[in-house]
Amino acid sequence: MDLGIRGKRALVCASSKGLGLGCAEALAAAGVDLVINARGTEALEAAAARLGREHGVSVTPVAADITSAEGRARVLDAAGAVDILVTNAGGPPPGSWQDWSREDFIAALDANMLTPIALMQAQLPGMMERGWGRVVNITSQSVKAPIAVLGLSNSARAGLTGFVAGTARQVAGRGVTINNLLPGVHDTDRAVALDGGVAEREGIQHAEARRRREATIPAGRYGTAAEFGAMCAFLCSVHAGFIVGQNVLLDGGATNATI
């Protein structure tokens, strides 16, 4: 399927690896020029060089912490006006509700709620003026079904979801869509770290921790960054203009819900 976005320009955050890179890869394959961002310079520049070489698109890497005001300013200055915005940032650490302080919640809100909101506030006016735009926020399956040890993430991402629900319906008439992608367990560094934590707490091998979690997923496996990126690219395509303010769950059936 031709996604109809060849020649568009996209900003994809936290995209040197994992789900962000999966999204950048799928957009590059569709002919979209990219500005990609991550904190680590080496992996980011390697990803930019490979994407440009393999897909024949322009790729600009900007090493910065997207969750800081200074980092956001650098990224937005380099990106300029974009047609597509994919927001993404690493999730807060797991833990227990008894241990989280106000500062822990503020940090989670800054990273996983206020940062994507600030990026949308910067880019939505231009998209509306040009009459076309796509925003995809990478959130979490915990928006649909909370995960106890990820209470910081549950809280921040639920707040972002509420913001998107209202804002998406205010900008849709100007040709701009905003949607959220909710990953379940994908084969990324985040999954490796969480499995490692389980293995350490329970005194089991890492492979056993992964096997146990895979057994809770009806698909019987972890998702891949490539299939996640393909869904992101579709939501950014010309075919997705009637998808507004939705939360698209990619979790292999792990969330047990009718709707």
Overview of this protein structure:
This protein is of the alpha/beta class. It contains eight helices and seven strands, in the order E-H-E-H-E-H-E-H-E-H-E-H-H-H-E. A seven-stranded parallel β-sheet has the order 3-2-1-4-5-6-7, with helices on both faces. Helix 1 (18-29) packs across helix 8. The model has no long low-confidence stretch (mean pLDDT 95).
Helix-strand blueprint:
Layout: E1 9-12, H1 18-29, E2 33-38, H2 41-55, E3 59-63, H3 69-79, E4 84-87, H4 102-130, E5 133-138, H5 151-171, E6 176-183, H6 189-202, H7 206-214, H8 225-235, E7 247-250
Parallel strand pairs: 1-2, 1-4, 2-3, 4-5, 5-6, 6-7
Helix pairs in contact: 1-2, 1-8, 4-5, 6-7
Put the structure in a nutshell.
The chain is an alpha/beta fold. Helices cover 47% and strands 14% of the residues. The mean pLDDT is 95.
Characteristics of this structure?
259 residues, alpha/beta, seven-stranded parallel beta sheet, globular
Spatial order of the strands forming the largest sheet: 3-2-1-4-5-6-7
Our measurement of the CA-to-CA distance between the termini, rounded to an integer number of angstroms, reads 28 Å
Estimated helix fraction: 40-55%
- Structural class given helices, strands, pairing? alpha/beta
Average pLDDT figure: 95
Q: Count the beta strands.
A: 7
